[in-house]
Design a protein that fits this description.
Blueprint lengths: L25 E3 L7 H17 L4 E2 L8 E11 L2 E9 L5 E10 L6 H23 L6 E9 L5 H15 L2 E4 L8 E11 L2 E11 L5 E12 L9 H24 L2
Parallel strand pairs: 1-2, 1-3, 6-7, 6-8
Antiparallel strand pairs: 3-4, 4-5, 8-9, 9-10
Helix pairs in contact: 1-2, 3-4
């Protein structure tokens, strides 16, 4: 993929800010396996991205209750890198693990580095939220069908979205427990020479059938690439879409009386 599927209109949902206490701060270390300037730049961008999630983070200081965030980077393709993140609590226990596959950024490409950090920060905040709050998550949604996807896309996208939402501490339901919103997915593709444009729309629907928010994603793929198996593309789609869905849910929660 030339780039991960990410929401193409970030103005359609509010940036999320989760209510963490200072004691749940994170001490961030540069990922191992990256060149020093790039690793340091990514760590610094991650501190800023975690602040946007209302998670105190630092490259230099920690306290006895702080989490430690480490990562190992390894190449997966000519222009891609896999980041294996590990969140460790104050007792030395692993609080969460997740992998992130991204295009390898250039050291000076601040926008690309910030985008990677933003996606990682959302996952980290979800892990911390899940570890810090007892009982079921505060956010929940019913996962409905994904229509219009060829091959195994319907199943693969639904499965990947469930995993991506649960990684961000969202309870994913098969049926509503009350007035829970429903998440519906739709896929549309159009041919463009030897490629096709694939557009995915995730819609959050209220109990009254009204659309409460949506996340739009698009990207080009080789023609016929999604006729059978979606493979890792489903994870890329869900990872980008879930961040927007969580922001919509958080916005709805804040707006309730």
């Amino acid at each position: 993929m030339p780039k991960p599927f990410q929401p193409d209109d970030k103005s359609r949902f509010d940036a999320s800010r989760l209510p963490f206490e200072d004691k749940l701060g994170v001490f961030v270390t540069p990922p191992e396996g990256l060149p020093d300037p790039l690793g340091a730049a990514l760590a610094a961008a991650l501190v800023e991205a975690l602040a946007d999630q209302s998670v105190p983070a630092s490259l230099n200081t920690a306290n006895r209750a702080s989490y430690l965030l480490t990562a190992e980077a390894s190449p997966v393709a000519a222009a891609e890198v896999a980041l294996s993140w590990r969140l460790i609590d104050a007792m030395g226990e692993i609080a969460g693990l997740f992998d992130q596959v991204e295009p390898m950024p250039r050291t000076g490409d601040r926008d690309a580095i910030a985008a990677i950090a933003t996606r990682a920060a959302a996952r980290i905040a979800g892990l911390m939220r899940s570890a810090a709050l007892p009982g079921p998550p505060a956010l929940r949604i019913v996962l409905g069908p994904v229509d219009g996807a060829r091959g195994d896309g319907r199943e693969a996208l639904a499965r990947a979205m469930r995993q991506a939402l649960e990684a961000q501490a969202v309870e994913v339901l098969a049926e509503p427990k009350g007035d829970d919103p429903v998440l519906l997915g739709s896929v549309r593709s159009s041919r463009r020479g030897a490629e096709e444009m694939v557009e995915i729309l995730w819609s959050v629907i209220g109990a009254d059938g009204a659309e409460l928010g949506s996340v739009s994603q698009s990207n080009t793929v080789p023609l016929g690439a999604l006729d059978e198996r979606w493979g890792p593309i489903a994870g890329a789609v869900a990872g980008g879409g879930a961040t927007g869905v969580v922001a919509i849910l958080q916005s709805l929660t804040r707006s309730k009386p």
